């Protein structure tokens, strides 16, 4: 039995015209070997299987899964106010839906960074306009997003209804400083590692656990040190299974 021809990185055409959306989806589903760390081309077409938070999802294209980080926006961290509402808002928009991801780059964590389109709906912009995420100034290219953020703030939508909303990048910076102070202080009780795996699962590891020694904590990703299992669980982490 002959092996099928290898999937090639190319744009599918139909009589000189761009192939319809459905055809492109089927083409990608038939080519599951594309590398998650280096998308062959933009856009990526597939189904959203999971929403980790307000700016990170998992996209399935056939047997290949891509960790997608929404470009130019920054949603509240898991331990921030409005985190749950932000995740629920994004989940309600895209979970189980077939979408198009216009790829921008691949970040240092191997996530594909891009803009998600559901038909003609710009999901990244919707999250900002509805007050579920900030415009991420550090990576901003489309400055029109600032008008959407301004409109949400003026109308007190979403996180802008909070008394004192803190941008996630400032929240992460404070968390890193706090974690550094704990480690420098040599508190022997703060040795529990709050890890976030590739699927976005928050798992804490105690000394003596199977993966404790190999687990590395990167506070810039929202990972944390804890002084007790109770503190870890209250913050949304779980023990290893």
Core attributes:
alpha+beta, OB fold (Dihydrolipoamide Acetyltransferase, E2P), 241 residues, 2 domains, disordered N terminus
Element layout with pairings:
Blueprint: E1 13-14, E2 17-18, H1 21-29, E3 44-53, E4 56-61, E5 64-70, E6 73-74, H2 83-94, E7 98-106, E8 112-118, E9 121-122, H3 123-129, E10 134-135, H4 145-154, H5 168-184, E11 192-196, E12 202-205, E13 224-226, H6 229-234
Parallel strand pairs: 5-8
Antiparallel strand pairs: 1-2, 3-4, 3-7, 4-5, 6-10, 7-8, 8-9, 11-12, 11-13
Please give a structural write-up.
This protein is of the alpha+beta class and 241 residues long. It folds into two domains: 149 residues, OB fold (Dihydrolipoamide Acetyltransferase, E2P), CATH 2.40.50; 67 residues, no CATH class. Strand 8 and strand 9 form a beta hairpin. The protein starts with 12 loop residues before the first strand and ends in a 7-residue tail after the last helix. The N terminus is likely disordered.
């Amino acid at each position: 039995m002959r092996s099928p021809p290898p999937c090639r990185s190319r744009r599918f055409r139909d009589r000189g015209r761009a192939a319809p959306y459905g055809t492109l989806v089927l083409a990608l589903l038939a080519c599951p070997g594309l590398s998650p760390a280096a998308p062959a081309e933009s856009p990526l077409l597939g189904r959203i299987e999971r929403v980790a938070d307000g700016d990170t999802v998992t996209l399935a294209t056939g047997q290949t899964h891509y960790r997608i980080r929404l470009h130019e926006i920054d949603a509240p961290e898991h331990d921030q106010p409005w985190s749950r509402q932000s995740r629920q808002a994004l989940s309600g928009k895209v979970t189980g839906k077939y979408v198009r991801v216009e790829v921008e780059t691949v970040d240092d964590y191997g996530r594909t960074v891009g803009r998600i389109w559901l038909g003609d709906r710009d999901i990244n912009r919707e999250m900002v306009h509805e007050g579920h995420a900030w415009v991420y100034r550090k990576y901003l290219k489309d400055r029109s997003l600032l008008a959407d953020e301004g409109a949400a703030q003026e109308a007190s939508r979403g996180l802008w209804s909070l008394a004192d909303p803190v941008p996630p990048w400032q929240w992460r910076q404070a968390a890193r400083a706090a974690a550094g102070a704990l480690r420098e202080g040599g508190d022997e009780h703060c040795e529990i590692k709050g890890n976030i795996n590739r699927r976005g699962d928050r798992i804490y590891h105690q000394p003596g656990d199977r993966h404790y020694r190999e687990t590395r904590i990167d506070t810039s990703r929202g990972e944390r040190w804890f002084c007790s299992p109770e503190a870890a669980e209250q913050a949304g982490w779980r023990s290893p299974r």
